[in-house]
Amino acid sequence: MKSKKFFSKFLSRYLWGNLTIMAMVVFLLFVGVEYGIDIYTHHGEAIPVPNLLHKKFNDAKYILSGLGLDIEVSDTGYVRSLPPGCILAQNPPAGEHVKSGHIIYVTINASNSPMIPIPDVIDNCSLREAMAKLTAMGFRLGQPKYISGEQDWVYGILANGRQVHAGDKISVDTSLIIEVGDGKLPTSDSIDYVDPSEDNDESSDDNGQDPFQEVQGTDPNVPSTEDASPANQNNSGN
Predict the structure, then answer these.
(1) To the nearest 5 percent, what fractions of the chain are helix, strand and coil?
(2) Which residues pair with 158 in a beta bridge?
(3) pTM of this prediction?
(4) Disulfide engineering: 125 pairs with which of 18, 64, 97, 129, CB 3.0-4.6 Å?
(5) Are strands 169-171 and 175-181 parallel, antiparallel or unpaired?
């Protein structure tokens, strides 16, 4: 192929038209991908999360739907002073900026009080320790009931007038009465004191003499006093 013919083909409108179209297609693809990702990921969008605490779940759902956000229950709790179904916590917190379609996770107040097992405090700790453990778990405590026993020692727990034991599940709304010792031991646990001096007096006889006297033994090598008496000497002379 001659060089003149080659350059004529290289400079043809058909070739440069195809190259121009290809460049435009690449440019449009690049721009489309960049803007498409931004639109898909809501780049630059920032929606402030509203405060949902203590609101009803349905009310919070209505507020979030108007902002293009979703809501989902992640956990339940219990606060006796708040109505059932109200929101106790939220994540993300109020004021944080999120994108459209983001899910707000909430903790709602349970309709029934939770049942919690009684800890091992009966006959195992003092009144102060038992009260600290029970109140930390959310139990309500009434006035302690004092019974005969060691001072401030926990002997039992009453719930609605009945005895409960460690591991029994009781509602946190139930008032618990702790049975605690008043420091006065029952008569069955008392110990009679005996004075040792009285035993020594009883062990002696009526004349004040010790009935258990030491008796000296006789040595066979030493003559008896009876053998040394004058009567025995006369008999031996005869």
Answers:
(1) 30, 25, 45
(2) 163, 177
(3) 0.47
(4) 129
(5) unpaired
